[in-house]
Amino acid sequence: MRAVVVMAMMILGFGFAGHRARATDSPQDPCSLLTAAQVSSTLGDKYGAPEKSVAPRPFANTVQGTDCQYKTASGQGQVLFRVYFDTSAAQATDLHTRLKMFFGKDSTPANVGDEGYVDKNSAIHVRKGNARYFLSMSHGDTPDGRKHILALATLVAGEL
To answer: Which of 104, 159, 34, 156 has the alpha carbon at shortest distance from 95?
Structure first.
C-alpha cells in the first residue's frame, strides 16, 4: 500500500513537473483587453468587433500571440492590437529588449506599462509583467494619431 502511495505521488509530481508554466493572468479572450467600444470612443469613429487570428511567434520557441483587428464599416480606419502572454516577466523582458533592437531605433520612449517604445512607423510596443503588446493604426503617424495610439495603449495597460 505504501508503495502505491509513493508511486501515485511520483506520478502526480511528474505531471506537475512536465506541465509548462502558463500565464495565469491571460484572459480567455485576449481581444477583451481592448473592446471595440473603447477603440470607437478613443478614436471618435464606429469600429466593429475585432477579427481575431493567431499572431506569429517572434522567435523560435516563443509563444504565439493573438491579433485583434478592428475596422470601421468603410474599412478606412484600422487598428491592430497584437498581444502575447509569455511564461514569465523575465522572458517577456528579454523578448521586449530583443525586439526593441530591431524596431526601436531612433524611437521615443512611451510612458505606459513597465516599459515601451514607439517605432519608426508610430506603432507602440509595450511590456507589462509577462504581457507584451503592440498597437498600430491607420494615420498613427499624425499628431492626433500618436496621441490616440498612446491612449489605447494606456487602456490596455490598465486592464493587465
So the answer is: 104
Residue 72: helix, strand or coil by DSSP? strand
Query: Rounded to whole angstroms, how far apart are CA atoms 114 and 99?
Result: 15
Determine which helix (DSSP H) or strand (DSSP E) holds 156, and give its type and residue range. helix 143-159
Alpha-carbon 114 to chain mean position: 13
HSE (CB half, 13 Å, CA atoms) of 153?
A: 31
Amino acid making up residue 140: G
* DSSP characters over 76-139: --EEEEEEEE-SSHHHHHHHHHHHHHHH-TTPPB--SSSEEEE-TTS-EEEEETTEEEEEEETT
- pTM, to two decimals: 0.81
What phi, psi does 44 have (nearest 5°)?
Answer: 75, 25
What's phi and psi for 29, nearest 5 deg?
-120, 100
Q: Are 74 and 90 in contact (CB under 8 A)?
A: no
Q: How far apart are CA 112 and CA 96, in angstroms?
A: 14
The model's pLDDT over 44-73, given as tens digits with 9 standing for 90+, comes to 999 999 999 999 999 999 999 999 999 998
